[in-house]
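Example record

The entry below shows one chain as it appears in the dataset: sequence first, then structure tokens.
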Amino acid sequence: MKLILTLCFLILSSQAIAQSVVRIKDIARLQGVRKNQLIGTGLVIGLAGTGDKGTATQDMVLNTIRNLGAKLSSNKISPKNAAAVIITADLPPFTSPGDVINVTVSTMGDAASLQGGILLQAPLKAANGQIYAVAQGPLSLGGGAGTHPTVATIPGGAIVEKEVPTQFVQNQVLYYLLNNKDFTTALRVSDIVNLTYGENTAKAVSAGKIKVNIPYSFQTNPVEFVSLIDHMKVQVDQVAKVVINERTGTVVLGGNVTISPVAIAHKSIIIQVGNKLNKTGKDEQLVEVNQGSSVSELVNTLNLMGIKTSDLIAIIQEIKNAGALQAALEVI
């Protein structure tokens, strides 16, 4: 069986990485500024016979009707047009009562589809057990109506009822947390802040945290100070890394990924990095790369030769096993 893989390259040259300058707000967040997860259970009605078949949903339907003040002469109700669901949502920081947030609705019984359903009013709780939002509304399956009909969304389907206090200033001190932990980047962030607001204003305390003292002139207006820091630009450092996704045939090459002298023989291809090597057979293809060349140069050469993705992945792994790939290799 012939396996056909699609190859996608994202090649970042060493020079491009060295000159990568971004805003601090794009690489870090303030400690204390975070989202909170909400969860709840509810009942979806209006399904076209694709609901649950179990008694648990039948009990939920009966309880809902009774809670609305209706009297029933019989407890025999078929729940085929209703489904018991789990509702999840993320409560963003600085959200106020009356704001709306998106929710995701998922079946927890044997309902076949949520297509056309409406979620009845359901409270959403945080991990502390308190209610922070209430969800209700028509479900949307979007493009997944045919592929995954048991999960739906309600854009803006929950109204926030309670605010989560967000404390990002601690004794006139801010803590910035890097999204990608790196000692060099942390030091550069502190240096650019100190260059603007004076020595000892900022200090990198670890590879992922920078302590920033709020200057006296901004202590009554920390929001303005945060905005100014957010828009400062810093040169980001990155670890040399190669990521291979064997399921999709995707190879992602970061900058500064070089190859030490090595000779690799793979099928009819001989790859020589550094020292010259004579071919051992008339049918072999010899690929020569200068010592210190980047992996992207080798990949480009092999790609132009029409090498299969599976062979390219195997070659990169062989180079890593030989200790010649000067980068971290991650296979997912």
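Notes for this example: The CA atoms of residues 113 and 150 lie 5 Å apart. The chain has a mean pLDDT of 83.
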